[in-house]
């Protein structure tokens, strides 16, 4: 190993070991000890020292930015292997990102618009989505629909007697052990568990209650790491925890966890299962001990929170707690704050962007941090030395070049009338064309001269284009006499008998033959009677 490439900690460690072993400098040759073994031991010592400081484990040396849209990224999730990322936002888009398939262009491979997304979470091969809709959808890792939960009856008072949610969903998550089970919480005041194989009805219903026994709306929900406990944060500031197999009474209940009326935006269990972190709408971050759930172990204040889905989570080694802060437009940058779990002092922070930091997660396998912001960005922080795969797979791939079609070496300009099908035939002789036009009755018709005076020969002078002149002209051209109604009807009898247009031939045999009354002397006498004797109709 080259000593010039070592950092300060390693150099100081080497100097200490060299002095103990009897060396006065690095240039002298050891007689009884191997220098390579000494350098390896020094490197391990430096790594152990860095591991004692949790801040040095934060992978924030590099970052990539995924452009989800222009509105708030309200949901963010990674699959357990860390191969694909899912982002959802208030613009009704759900986008799927594949780290192994992306290049430096950082384009999503699939985009859906099911509804406004409130929460997404990956679990093995499926992903549930919670939204402004009352029905949760389950999609596979490629974005295709697997199932959709049933909607409940909103006219039933007892929500336990309905088969599904009746109001907007606030969140959802998968069971950490049972791959077919997931959970949702809604504004109807219930937390429900579901089975992917049974979409017609929920498995169990948990109903949060206030101190007076009234219905309370849960704003977030989560499973414990072993899947035995279900926790829900409510609008009245309480945190209620049930045993998964007992949905009647709560196992743990803290009635003043946060200020009443402030939505608890996130609950997260630690990896050891002993602690619970809660992010409140009262600008606080609290850590609770499950074994003593009456008072929080640590509290951090002054963490602005304007969103009902601001996240908090534990680091993979359970030594840090991270959360995001909110800012108003053009009033600063949103930050990602890191707190020591034991002392709860802010040990590190990252200025993400000039918008609020809402979603955040720290993947244990990739050792990378994903952040969702209020201006439609999804950022991934990583370290080339400490992180594995994930965003490191796509930053090394160059952008694909666009395939351009080969240009023509010579441009051809084609006019429509230059084509043979549009070209008019040339007349070789004018005399022959005139003889053909003479035989054509339309072309050889002599145009009528203009009408002079009021009109003659049934033609009306074109003195105006009014409706009255048009009617007068048509009346003059129509020479039929319809003074006798009977004769006017019988005039069409022969044509109707030969060509029965109005009466189909199928009804010809069944239709009666029309028999018209013949003229009699009484009709003639009635016509000769004076007007005052005629019967009024």
Automatic annotation (TrEMBL):
Biased composition (Acidic residues): 516-528
Classification via Pfam families: WD40 (PF00400)
Record-given protein name: WD repeat-containing protein 70
PANTHER family hit by this protein: GASTRULATION DEFECTIVE PROTEIN 1-RELATED, WD REPEAT-CONTAINING PROTEIN 70
Stretches forming WD repeats: 66-98, 162-204, 211-243, 267-292
Keywords tagged on the record: Repeat, WD repeat
Keyword Repeat: yes
Alphabetical list of PROSITE patterns matching this protein: WD_REPEATS_2 (PS50082), WD_REPEATS_REGION (PS50294)
Organism, scientific name: Takifugu bimaculatus
Protein family per UniProt: Belongs to the WD repeat GAD-1 family.
Biased composition (Basic and acidic residues): 426-448
Positions of region (Disordered): 426-462, 505-537
One GO cellular component term: nucleus
First and last residue of the signal peptide: none
